[in-house]
What we know:
Shape of chain A: globular
Structural class of chain A: mainly alpha
Number of strands of chain B: 4
Radius of gyration of chain A: 19 Å
Number of helices of chain A: 12
Order of helices and strands of chain B: HHHHEEEHHHHEHHH
Distance between the termini of chain A: 38 Å
Helix content of chain B: over 70%
Shape of chain B: globular
Distance between the termini of chain B: 37 Å
Helix content of chain A: over 70%
Oligomer: heterodimer
Number of helices of chain B: 11
Amino acid sequence: MEYILSVATVAGINIIMALSFYAPFMTGQVSLAQAGFAAIGAYSAAVCTVKFGIPYIPAVITGGVVTGAVGFILGIPALRIKGVYLLLLTLGFGEIVRVIFINIEYVGGAAGFPGIPYQENTFFYAYGLVLILIVCFERLRNSRMGRAMRAVGDDETAAEINGINITAVKLKAFAAGAFIAGMGGGILAHFQEFIEPLMFGVMHSVEYIVFAIFGGVQVFWGPIFGAIVLSFVPELFRFIQAWRHEIYGALLIVMMIIKPEGVITNDSVRFIKKVFRGN
Amino acid sequence: MVIQQLINGLMLGSTYSLVAIGYALIFGVLGLLHFAHGEVLMVGAFMGLYIILWTGLPLYITLPLTMVVTGILGMIIQFLAIRPLKKNFHLAPLLSTIGVTIILQNMTMKIFGGYGTRFPDTIAMDNIMLGPYMVSSAKLIIMGVSLLLMVIFYLVIKKTKLGKAMRAVAESHLTAGFLGVNVERTIFLTFGIASALAGAAGVMIGVSYSAISPFIGLTFALKGLVVMLLGGMGNVVGAMIGGLILGVAEVLSITLLPSDVNLQDIFSFGIMIIILIFKPTGLFGSKQNQI
């Protein structure tokens, strides 16, 4: 039971991270910096609780705010570039963040940052945040801002002609993604009790992209679904322990070949809503 | 001292160039990031190691053999994970090659073990005096072989029919197809050539670093990306020169900057970010779709 709870908690944190990738993605920005953002959030939240004795919730929020500010700054050069170039910029940023934390002795350097107080209700806090995010994304969907974000994601030129301030929209989305990732990092730090720079490598950013795209990026339920399924799938494959990573990799390839738009699409959301209404 | 480091830098840089050429070639022809390229290099390093360990063949036979194996591996990757993709979703190739990365890494771990493995001393580690500068023979051979491969590759691109086809496909798949170029076959062979070069880089990294593990792929993949950007996305000659520049810059940064901080990695990624912000076309320019 404890084991399942722990996997479920990690799944919750993964949902937060997948949504943090999804926020800038809605405006067409593909970010490989999310693990770097999580590192900033985790370290700032841990510094708050360990060094200054600040309680859990304000510490996690501080982590999010600090990260959001960094995301805002990174978002400015990110405005100028697109596609593969943005991917490389955010990838470089994530690696630099990691190397910087290796060199800061105040937070333990390469040896890691031990002794972070354990939050035993992490499960509830993580899913609480997920719930808040769901409400936010749902309200965003048909709001002016949400429509503007989707318009920018579809076609920037067309969006600009229609009077959308694409600079503001993209920057806000990028900073929001960083803010969410920072909070996720803070929650993770107080669940693991120990953080080290290695925990925030590029492969983790890649993992969040995989969650989001596997689940589907047309609607925010996709990343949530992807994070849950892919957090549990490796556990389900435990009976074929030896080959589970290979199966995971092969699944990814097959998925991209037969259904690149992801599992959850606009149509499937509409279908589920129909079923629930009962007609 | 500085010149000594310059030589070390060129040695390091020439392996970076080999990796970056592969990236540039694939990006130029297909416009996509081949995420598993670093893993092809890693497989090449292991192939080279075990061919030497099991058969005791000398390096000058091992290297071409490894290149053939990784070249075939690259073509298999293209055939299974890239060719079947629909063209309408630009992140699909990224994800499917991430899948390839996961598979290759875990297979290698299963077959060869997850710990670092030492390369046997294949090349006599003599130190040769070039005037006042000492150079190990291994480094000279690595640099020589890398440069030779680059020259051969350049000639293939510029002089052969295949090279012409590759350049045509890079400019436009559609036009090249109309003009009678077999586009699918050209892309297939492009992956083969790029992967063969990555395999060669893998063997040489194994020889010069002496220890390899299934996780070296990502490190060199990232370096290769920085170099490709430095030279201009999809610009093959730029990738060659960019690799040498990054190698020298890294080695000099270790020598000249304070040694108490680990600046080497920040340095290369810092270069990358500065270039992305101020000159995204790279030092030598990249016309879209030109190799």
